[in-house]
Design a protein that fits this description.
- The protein has 531 residues and is of the alpha+beta class.
- It contains twelve helices and seven strands.
- The strands form two sheets. Strands 2-4-5-7-6 form a five-stranded mixed sheet.
- The chain starts with 6 loop residues before the first helix and ends in a 29-residue tail after the last strand.
């Protein structure tokens, strides 16, 4: 199908062609049914003609029998019956002739039958006159002389010639009727086969012209999510081709924005690091100068009050100012490093495989053994099913969550942290497994939970050091895995962070739309915060 046609025109063709075919098929079927009805009518016509011919002959035979009975018995009732049968013969033959008015050959044969019938009737009328004149014995002699039988046999012979031809016509018409029935059956079979073949051809055309090209668009979306090169552009000028071009323009714009953002981050980090280095160096110089001044004051011959005031200014005000400068510089350097780490998350190439999540969590807990012991906390790791992802990335996710739980434990009670899994019906249907990290720490007010996964958001800055980048990194990593992350928390009761990850490779997860081909998950939308 021409790829330059619009989808609307293609749809009209895909609908119009089978409709036209069906109309043609229905027209042919109606014609065959009409031919069959006509053949059936002629077959019934032949049967009717033969039945009426036999009926007319039977009336002649009955009239002959009635007259014989009248001659033998002299009973007037037989004469009445004879006259009744006699009067019906001529109309019966006339009606039969009208019935075969379309067949001149049969009309000629019927005229011969009619002539013989008139001879029989004329002979019967003569016998009846003899009986009416009181000459019953003479009438019986005429009857016994078999003259009437010869007339009837002549009529029978003429009628047989007529019926023979009518029987031949009946056979021909029955053959025509059977042939039209066979034609109708074959038409239905051929129509069904053509309908199936047409549906197959239309399905193939749709698949090649529309379905396959839409699949290529979907594949390009998966390639974009996987960071792979897009397939060649679609040809044509229809809506799908225009959508493909728009999609490619969008991809190019996104790529340009990514490059611009990356260049911006690097530029900012580069531009900020130079003054930070200077600030750090000058703050150290100031600290050195303060120390030198302190030594000079100790050696100088100054009044005691003046020396004491100068030392106080150096040790308290100057040293505190230098310390504030160095703390601010260190904090700003940490923020710059965090920005760089966050920008690199989307560019890391993952190694997709089945990950033993429990082993990864155990390694994370072991790495925090000193911190756990220092805080007097208890960490338990339950049975954790495997998940599909990058081992290092998933280990980083649980490391951030466990570290977050340790940092924000409540110092007023013994800390307890639990890492486990549970079944979420919605996630199971989507092919995801749900893990959680639960603590009995400080907790988070509901109004502030929505900000928690944003970069540089710290709700308890006094509890632990950091830049507030850990949970933002967790969210980015989980979304790249095609999963989702959310939390449930209450102040004073602790927090539970949930992470839903793919249960297996995409080809093993039926109906999972968030995981792309080639083992690369698509980026999922952020999950709503739940309480």
């Amino acid at each position: 199908m021409d790829e330059n046609l619009s989808i609307f025109k293609k749809g009209l063709l895909l609908v119009g062609i089978p409709l036209l075919t069906q109309f043609l098929f229905l027209g042919m079927l109606v014609k065959i049914r009409g031919d069959q009805a006509e053949a059936q009518r002629w077959a019934i016509h032949s049967k009717d003609v033969m039945a009426r011919a036999e009926g007319a002959f039977r009336l002649v035979i009955e009239a002959n029998g009635d007259l014989r009975a009248f001659a033998v018995s002299g009973d007037p009732k037989f004469d009445e019956v004879y006259r009744h049968d006699r009067q019906r013969v001529t109309p019966a033959l006339a009606g039969l002739r009208h019935l075969i008015s379309d067949n001149s050959s049969q009309q000629e044969k019927l005229d011969a039958v009619r002539g013989k019938a008139e001879e029989v009737l004329a002979w019967l009328d003569e016998v009846r006159l003899l009986i009416g004149d009181g000459k019953g014995a003479e009438a019986l002699r005429h009857i016994n002389a078999l003259e009437g039988k010869r007339h009837i046999d002549d009529m029978r012979a003429a009628l047989d010639r007529f019926l023979t031809r009518e029987h031949e016509l009946d056979v021909e018409r029955q053959d025509t009727l059977q042939r039209t029935a066979h034609e109708q059956n074959w038409a239905l079979v051929v129509g069904g086969v053509l309908a199936l073949a047409g549906a197959g051809v239309l399905l193939l055309v749709f698949s090649r012209s529309i379905g396959r090209r839409l699949a290529m668009l979907a594949e390009n979306a998966r390639r974009l999510a996987a960071g792979k090169a897009l397939s060649p552009p679609l040809r044509g000028r229809d809506e799908i081709s225009r959508l493909d071009r728009t999609f490619r323009d969008m991809v190019a714009a996104l790529a340009q924005k990514d490059r611009d953002n990356e260049m911006f981050v690097y530029s900012v980090s580069h531009d900020l690091r130079a003054p930070l280095v200077n600030l750090q160096g000058f703050s150290q110089e100031l600290a050195t100068v303060c120390a030198d001044l302190r030594r000079l004051l100790a050696e100088a011959n100054l009044p005691t009050d003046a020396r004491r005031r100068a030392v106080t200014l150096l040790d308290r005000d100057a040293a505190e100012s230098v310390r504030f400068i160095q703390t601010a510089v260190t904090r700003l350097a940490g923020i710059i490093d965090a920005l760089l780490r966050l920008s690199r998350v989307g560019r890391v190439e993952y190694r997709w495989q089945m990950v033993d999540v429990r082993a990864a969590v155990v390694r994370v807990v072991e790495s925090f053994r000193d911190t756990i012991a220092h805080r007097g906390a208890e960490v338990t790791v339950g049975d954790l099913p495997p998940a599909w992802g990058d081992p290092l990335a998933l280990e980083q996710v649980f490391a951030n969550l466990v570290a977050n739980a340790l940092n924000y434990l409540d110092p007023q009670r013994p800390g307890r942290i639990e890492v486990g899994s549970r079944d979420e019906p919605g996630d199971l249907r989507a092919g995801l497994r749900t893990f959680y990290v639960k603590d009995n720490g400080l907790g988070i007010p509901e109004g502030q939970q929505g900000k928690l996964f944003l970069a540089f958001q710290r709700l308890h800055p006094e509890a632990a050091a950091g830049e507030g980048i850990g949970l933002a990194l967790v969210r980015r990593v989980v979304e790249r895995h095609g999963g989702r992350v959310w939390l449930e928390s209450a102040p004073g009761a602790g927090s539970t962070f949930f992470v839903a990850l793919p249960a297996g490779p995409p080809q093993r997860i039926a109906g999972q739309a968030s995981v792309t081909a080639n083992g690369r998950p698509a980026v999922a939308a952020p999950a709503p915060q739940r309480r």
